[in-house]
Every structure is written in C-alpha cells, then in structure tokens.
Amino acid sequence: MSAVVAPHVPAELQVENNGALLRLRGAWTLAQLDRLIASAEGVRLATGPLQVDASELADLDTAGVLLLLRTLRKSGQPLEAHAITGLGEADTALLQLLASRLEPQRPQREGHFQFRLVLERIGAAVMRFLATARDFLGFVGLVIATLGQLLIRKRRLRWTSTVFHMEQVGLDAVPIVALLTFLVGAVVAFVGATALRDFGAEVFTVELVSISFLREFGVLLTAILLAGRSGSAFTAQIGSMKSREELDAIQVLGLDAIELLVIPRLIALLVMLPLLAFIATVMGILGGGLVGILALDITPGMFLSRLNEMTDISHFWVGMSKAPVFAFLIAVVGCMEGFKVEGSAESVGRHTTASVVQSIFLVIVVDAMFAMFFMELDI
Amino acid sequence: MSAPREHIIEVEGLRNVFGKQVVHDGVDLTVLRGEVLGVVGGSGAGKSVLMRAILGLKRPDGGRIRVFGEDTTYLDADARKPFERRIGLLFQDGALFSSLTVAENVKVPLQEYYDLPAEFLDELALLKIRLTGLPADAAHKYPAQLSGGMRKRAGLARALALDPEILFLDEPTSGLDPIGAADFDDLIRTLANALGLTVFLVTHDMDSLYNLCDRVAVLADGKMIVVDTVEVVERHPHPWIRECFQGPRGRSAMQQHDHGQVAQPHPSGA
C-alpha cells in the first residue's frame, strides 16, 4: 500500500486477449471501488488460467484485493493457477494473506419474504409466549414459597429496604396519581353529562363518576401508572444488577436474591398500591364533583347526598379487593423481567419495555376477569 | 522501506493539564510510517491522554500535533473527518455496538462512507472478520455472545474496516490470558506487515514490548523519557524504567525474548 495515490490515474480493469489477460490500472482502493465493481461485473473471462498484469497498479488495499479475488474466482481456477506479474512484494503478501482467509462459500443472505419464514416466526413467537407464561408461573411459585418461609420465620423481612421502596413506589407517586385521576374524573363527568343531558338525566353524572371510580378507574388507573412507573424501575434496577454480576455475587455470598430484592419490592407495592388507589378514587370523585358543581348546576349538598344515598359501599370494596392482586402482578412481572436480563445494557432496555407491556396487559386481563366474576355474583 | 522514513505522527511540546494536575509537560514524539510503537508508563502517566490528544478526542492545553504531515491540533470535528478515515482505533473492550452483530458492526463505517453492493459488502465484512482470526460463524453473533478475546478481535475487524494507515490500540492484551495475549500480538504483527500499518500501541504488557514493538516510548513525570528499541530502553537509568524492566515481570519477558521462546512464527502468506 503506497502512501501517495495519484488521483488522476483512473482505476480500471482492462481485459485483453479474449479475456485471458487482465490489466489492473490505478488505485484499487475502497474509494475507487464503486467504479471498479461496475467495470468488473460485466467482464467476460476466458476459461482456464489467466494472466494478470499489475504493473500499472498505483495502490491496493483489502477491498481491492477482494475484488480481484472475486473476479479471478469466476474463472473457476484456484489462485495459484493464475500468473500474476508486476505486483509489489507487500501487495503480494497482502494478496496471499487475504486469499488464505477468504471463505470458500459465500455468506448466505436470508430471504426476507418467504412463507416458511413467516410460519417460523409465528411458531417462535408462540413458543416464546408459552415459555414466558411458564417462567411467570414458576417465578410466582418461588415468590409465594419465599413469602411462606417469611411467615414461619425461616427468612427475614428486610425492613430498611421495604420502607425505602414504599417511599419510592408510594409516597413519591402520590402527586402524579392524584393529578391524573382528578383530571380523568373531570373528563368522565363532562362526557357523561353531555350524553345524559339529552335524557334529562344530568344528575346521574354523580353515580356515573362515583361508581366508575370506586369500582374500576381508581384502582385500574393507579395500577397502570405504577406498572409504568415502578414495574419498569424494578426491572431496570434488578436488570442492571444482573448485568454487573451483582446477582451472582449475592448468590455466592450465600444470600437469597428473592428474599433480598423481590420481597421488599413486593410488600412495598402490596401496601402502597391500595393506599394510592384510595387516593385515586377520592381524587377522581372530587374531579367529577367539581365539574358537576361548576358546570352542571349540581350543588355540593346535592352531590354529597346523592353520593351518600345512591352509591352502595360494596362498590368501594369491589375496587379495593382488586388492588393487592394488581400490586402482586406488577411487582412479580417487574422483578422477573429484571432477572431475565442478560449481558448488555441493551438487554436491560428490552426487558424494561417487556415488563411494562406485560404488566399492563395482565392488569387489564385480570380486571376483565374480576368484572365477570362480580357480575355473576351480582355484587 | 529504506531512506528517511516519513514521520506519520509528530507531537511537539504537548501539554495537558487537568485542574491542577499536569499530565503532560512538553511531550515530544515522532512515529515513523510502518513501525509498531509501544507507549508505556505507570498508571496515570498519561498514555491514554496522549492517544486521545492525537486522535482529537481531547483538546491539548499546549503544543502541536501533526498527523500525516498536517497540523491537526486545533481542527474542528468537520475538518478532522478526512483524517479519521485513515485512522483505526481499537478500544479496550472493543466498544462494539451491542445491538448489532459483528458483521453489521464491521459494515457500519463502510456503509457510512461508501456505497457498495450489498453482496460485496457482506463478503468484505466477512473477510475482515476472518482476517482477525475469528471463525466465520462469529459474524452473525452479537457482542454479548462473544468472549473478551473474541470481542477484541471483532473490534479490531471494525477498526480495520476502512483500511486505515494508522492503527491505535489501547491496551489490547489487557484481560486476555497469556496465550491469548501472545496470539493477539502475533495477529497485530501479521496484520501490520501485510497491510503496511503503522501501529500506536498503549500497553502494560511487557511481553508485547519485546515481541511486537519496533520501538518503545516511555512516558514518566509528564515527559517522554526515551524513545528507542527495547534493547536500548531497558538499559536506561530512569528509576521507573529500571523498576519496570528489572522487576520480575520485565526480567521474565526479557529472558523469554532472549531465548527466542516466543519467536514470531511469521505466517508469510501460504
């Protein structure tokens, strides 16, 4: 590879003698390669050993060598069969080295639009889903077993860690949960009142807001917010510990990762999610009430008395009974995805996304199952 | 390679200061085209800072740096681009893009600068990967699936993608077992010969100094103490050099070298 490249020498491949003699001219380097490839693609070569004259070659790099080797390969003869003249000592060494490393078979490019590939990917996705479901059940079992051991005092509850997570998961989330449910409550009241007004039943807005928030929205909105806020944080925290081998360190030190990392987060969420759901319900009803009072001619007294008389307390218990279940799902999915992280930081990101998607999916599916259950029970 | 050799890198009076700590206080260094230069020095002597200054990753606080005969000391990022294509850098742990396979990593600079047919690009990337001694099936693996040594080779394949004239290596053998380290030294030597590379090697590895480097540069006390062949450097009276080369590790590397135990089996083509 000589240093100085004369830019005015055009790089080209010239074929003479009916394709038996190749003349290499100019700089056979990466920078010149697109024009060289164009001139080399259509070349018709003689069969049998070729002559290569490199005496007018100005420069040669690995890309140039590859092009030469690819061209010579078309003749169907091994490299040694060809007579190469005029090549410098260094360039010859480069040619020999690269020829020895060239793969005999070309890399196969995958066909992208094949029907088989589609089936294959569907199959792989189904298998992945089944594996995830199995992992999830296994992890749930492990967590419940550890909780049981906690009860019979075989394991310790980490108080410091639990309280720390209560603060992060619960207290720090109060403003965002309160604000969002307040706004959703106001929106529900507005939309509901607009529809109910046509029937002269505007006053039923109170029941609409209170029942929907007590039964569904309070706990569901909180759960979805916490899945995005805390479930993802659990995955990222545990995942980055995993990728830095901290989890292995925990195991080698004779500690239990479930006891140390999962149980405090789970208990924190089990305690805080119902409390947050309560705040969310109150704020949602407040938002709805405010809209009613300010925009719909419902006086505060009327709002309160209607809330008191027409809304059964059972709605509140229905909503609250779901909170610990959602908390359990979010904590378990968040922690489990963290344990599944492997190696790189990119994997942490991927599993964090998976954790949020899965826990929101599970929360909504389980909520639908609860709705059917309570309907059958007539509660 | 005869006659006066081209000075591919020239550093004059380089000064680097971090807060109150003076790392470089007038460092001079000339790198000749085609040589393998090893830069050694104690921890914190500023080996990596010197390399980063030459590469333009750190703006020096004084002095001049010429690369390919042109002053690059205070060039901005755009003006530096043409130089960067002619320089390859292997980071300590490869610094491969973790979301891409090895082959895709090698293709990144090629696709960025040149418009080549996809099939040619595939084969060129595979060739570079094979050139660094990796098996062909490593091409479709992700960096996380490779061992530390393989990641370094993959990083080297990416560094060589654009056929650079200068190759910077930041402690390439750290974290490798002795056999892997010796293999890597061999690989660098083979590639330097075949591709006509100039190699700027920052290292802690005494074996690399003896087996790989044409010349050794010693950084200490903010200055370049000596730049010469390893046989001359090892006799230098500077206290750090004496401790380093006369210490147990230095001596064993020297003995091995003298007995020709790790002599280079130069694979000359074939």
Structure characterization notes:
The complex is a heterodimer of chains A (379) and B (270). In chain A, 69% of the residues lie in helices and 7% in strands. Chain A is built from twelve helices and four strands, in the order ββαβαβαααααααααα. Chain A has a four-stranded mixed beta sheet, with helices on one face. The radius of gyration of chain A is 35 Å and the shape is elongated. Chain B has 270 residues and is α/β, with parallel strands linked by helices. Chain B has helices at residues 47-55, 77-85, 102-113, 118-131, 148-159, 178-195, 206-211, 230-233, 239-246, 248-258, and strands at residues 7-18, 21-32, 36-41, 62-67, 70-71, 87-90, 166-170, 198-202, 215-220, 223-228. In chain B, the strands form two sheets. A six-stranded mixed beta sheet of chain B has the order 6-7-8-3-9-10, with helices on both faces. A four-stranded antiparallel beta sheet of chain B has the order 2-1-4-5, covered by helices on one side. In chain B, strand 7, helix 6 (178-195) and strand 8 form a beta-alpha-beta unit. Residues 261-270 of chain B have low confidence and may be disordered. The interface between A and B is large, with 34 and 41 residues.
